[in-house]
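Hey, can you fold this one?
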Amino acid sequence: MVQVHLFIGGYVHSVGFRAFVKREAEKLGLTGWVRNLPAGRQALPDNRVEVLAQSSASSDQEAKEALEQLILLCRKGPFIAEVRGVSVSWEETKGTYSDFHILGTE
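Sure. Predicted structure:
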């Protein structure tokens, strides 16, 4: 199983970003989770969102294509978001998820 870990920065809190990621991940048949990372010392609207997404597609190629599609969608975000950067890490799967969850802030 293929897994990708994303950190999305910019104006991504309070704009429906987590719901957007969940909806798009489910359309792509992905599992995992999305959550807001806590605000820094200054409560600015420039916090990050963290995503862990997995694909159990029948082939590694199909899995990677679905995850790459999610990465592209996260680079855009919902219409009101202002994505300034996406950090992408491909990882070995350490566990599996049955669906895609929105988690509370870390």
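DSSP finds two helices and five strands in the chain. Let me know if you want another pass with a different chain boundary.
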